[in-house]
Design brief:
By secondary structure, the chain is mostly beta strands. The chain contains no helices and 26 strands. Helices cover about 0% and strands about 50% of the residues.
Length: about 350
């Protein structure tokens, strides 16, 4: 891979800074239908992911079984992946991705991937698991059965690592975005912790930072195509704060900006949180939820903006069925809600 990198300097022009007014279409998402599943008890789910065979994958954080598979056809639930360090186990599942019909799960703590495959009777079973060579990656996204991209470990010279289908490192690529005092502090993927989504063919991917409002568009075989940001237009100054025998890096201003990030072949959607973190103040669950969804095409052009009635921990879309599934916070309760997008998506009647 040869990476063509275009500079993103501090004085970037307005053509690479968008605002909420940049979206020609603004939609208030209302009148959702709550999903009720008889044998499902939501604990502290981190994400929900739609599977094209009409399943909803719930990624739990405080349950002995980390994955709940909701069958949307028969309203039944399958529990998978016990918490642990052994075969078929994970400590925490993060980053659920569908490749063809297989479900890829990633454990950050163990640097481990587990693949679930349909068993033919509306159930799933483990067909492969492996450890990736890139240790301490904060995010992994399979591009296909043969390639995955992940954030390089903190301290690495490169922003991304390309892996083969068994987790072996193929190569590293990508420069870190600039910040105001990057001549004093070395950039890393703690400062630019990000989530990743890709086109179905795995040829292009997008990443958005969770601490600043910066997007990056990549062609896997060519390199960086574009950086743009918004709607906050943050210019980061990074502080090194002492912690025991070491130190931690804190960006200022300190925000929780985006999560989640999803994509299809035509566009990608980012959940905008936009919460500024004040020193000495804790974060509520509502502070960490998306309040709006920004939709872009693969050139980074703003398409539409959804305003959510309830804050969303996570969301995903059934692109063919034109339904949005949102894990929402209703006062103190988490519920799964579905919305009909038939009137809003391209090709809808």
């Amino acid at each position: 891979m040869s990476c063509i990198v275009f500079s993103c300097d501090h004085g970037k022009g307005n053509e690479d800074l968008f605002s909420e007014e940049s979206f020609n279409t603004s939609i208030d998402l209302r009148d959702g239908r709550q999903l009720v599943v008889d044998d499902l008890l939501l604990g502290q789910p981190a994400s929900i992911t739609f599977h094209p065979d009409s399943f909803l994958i719930v990624d739990e954080t405080d349950s002995p079984m980390l994955i709940s598979l909701i069958d949307l056809k028969n309203n039944k639930t399958q529990q998978l992946i016990p918490r642990g360090r052994g075969p078929g186990e994970m400590l925490v599942s993060r980053g659920v991705t569908i490749v063809d019909r297989d479900i890829y799960l990633f454990c950050v703590q163990l640097s481990k991937v587990i693949i679930l495959t349909p068993a033919g009777d509306r159930s799933f079973c483990i067909t492969n698991e492996f450890f990736i060579e890139e240790k301490q990656s904060g995010c992994l996204h399979p591009l296909s059965r043969d390639r995955a991209v992940c954030l390089s470990a903190i301290g690495d010279e490169n922003r991304f690592t390309l892996l083969n289908g068994n987790g072996r490192i193929l190569e590293k690529f990508g420069e870190y975005p600039p910040f105001l005092n990057d001549d004093e502090i070395k950039a890393n993927n703690d400062i630019f912790q990000s989530v990743i989504a890709s086109t179905p063919d795995g040829e292009r991917f997008v990443t958005v930072c969770s601490k600043t409002d910066l997007f990056e568009l990549y062609d896997v075989d060519v390199g960086l195509q574009r950086r743009f940001q918004g709607p906050l237009g943050l210019k980061l100054f990074v502080e090194a704060q002492s912690m025991g025998s070491g130190y931690m890096l804190r960006p200022e201003p300190h925000y929780k900006t985006y999560r989640p990030l999803i994509a299809n072949k035509d566009e990608f959607w980012a959940g905008f949180i936009g919460h500024r973190i004040e020193r000495g103040k804790g974060l509520t669950l509502a502070d960490q939820c998306a309040k709006k969804i920004f939709c872009f095409d693969w050139q980074g052009k703003p398409l539409r903006m959804f305003s959510l009635e309830y804050p969303a921990v996570y969301f995903d879309v059934d692109w063919n069925g034109k339904s949005l599934y949102a894990l929402e916070l209703h006062e103190n309760d988490l519920v799964i809600t579905t919305y009909d997008l038939d009137n809003y998506l391209p090709g809808s009647k």
